[in-house]
Amino acid sequence: MAGNRRRGFALRGWFFQVHLWTGIGAGLYVLAMSLSGSALVFREELEALYPGKARTVRVRGDRAPLEEVRKTVARRFPGYKVAWIREPERPDQAYDVWFEKGEDARLALVDPYDARFLGEVGATSTLWTFLQHLHFYLFAGRTGLLINGAGGLLLGLLCVTGLVIWWPGRTNWARALTVNWSGGWKRLNWDLHSAGGAWTIAFVAVWALTGAYFGFPQPFVRVIDAFLPMSSEVPSPAGPADGRGQFPVDSLVERALAAVPGHWPTLIGLPHHEGENLAVVYLLPQESHDRLKTTYVYLNPFTAEILDIRRPENSRPGDRILSWLARLHFGDFGGWPVKTVWAVLGLTPALLFVTGFLMWWNRVLSKRWRRWRARVVIGEKAGGVQ
After folding, report:
1. Domain count, the chain
2. What's the pLDDT tens digit per position in 1-43?
3. What is the pTM of this model?
4. Which residues have CB under 8 Å from 46's CB, separation 6+?
5. How far apart, in Å, are the Cα atoms of 89 and each of 47, 101, 184?
6. b vs e for 177-198, b when ≥16 Cβ sit within 10 Å of the residue's Cβ?
7. Is residue 195 a part of any domain in this protein?
8. Which of residues 298 and 241 earns the better pLDDT score?
């Protein structure tokens, strides 16, 4: 029995060291992700209400053809391919047009009424783009996305090791969930870290899991596909043998709307990767903004032939799981009440980092600091005597 206890203490100590040094090593990263993630929860709603000067246009007449919007960006950025065009939700907002060349992805704003180029949106264009580039890409593009995936795994490791360290046994677990507000600040700091982490571990674990999914989607797809049925990928058609160009974007959208009446296009995806010959139009029912109701219409961009239609009511269990991974990360379900909870609880990792650092300071760094100061004082006195 004593041997089992010693092994248990040794294992707990090992978990503590892993938790401590992982928290120290990834602490500033977790702090940045926590603060930026909470701020971004209501980004879409706030941008829709206050689009800013760059995205605001004067409403006038009919809209320019979508093909002209595509050509505007293609002419201005030769060598790049237009990848996505997002339909603005308000008549006084510009089109968002993403264009790519290899790993380099950029975003342009285009006036929907005269297809005039308004400007390129960069990481420092607005507070929201700054936070978005920080949270998603760490200002490093694809490399930053992969680092974020690894960061999600580290955050998951902190959850596992933290739970092992916190577990007080079957008889004391309820008491370990309480915070003693009447004790000293060191006790309060400990309780906030310990009990606060226990209360919110499920949320933090979800953000860790979904963050890892964004960085490394394929392993998640393979695991889900092994247990749940998923829709197969729509095969990319062969390019035209006669070298004909793509159909105008408007024709692709019209063909999609004719196949799924009563909807409006929210996003148009165009082929932009080497060997890719597939276009997709995202459609929502009129007056709806719920992404779970999206219908995907896949087309051959060279013939405007509809290759497949993926309706939400026909989605398979594996597809729904993948969809929920993204929605759970951002709290994109249940409206503003859920988003409010996500924005508040999104600060939890930052709180845990601060309280954990203070615990480390109290137990380790402050003692080393005092010893170092004592040696400095002794050295100064010795120098004065000489």
Report:
1. 1
2. 555 555 556 788 888 889 989 998 999 999 999 999 999 999 8
3. 0.85
4. 128
5. 11, 27, 52
6. eeeeeeeeeeeebbbbbbbbbb
7. no
8. 298
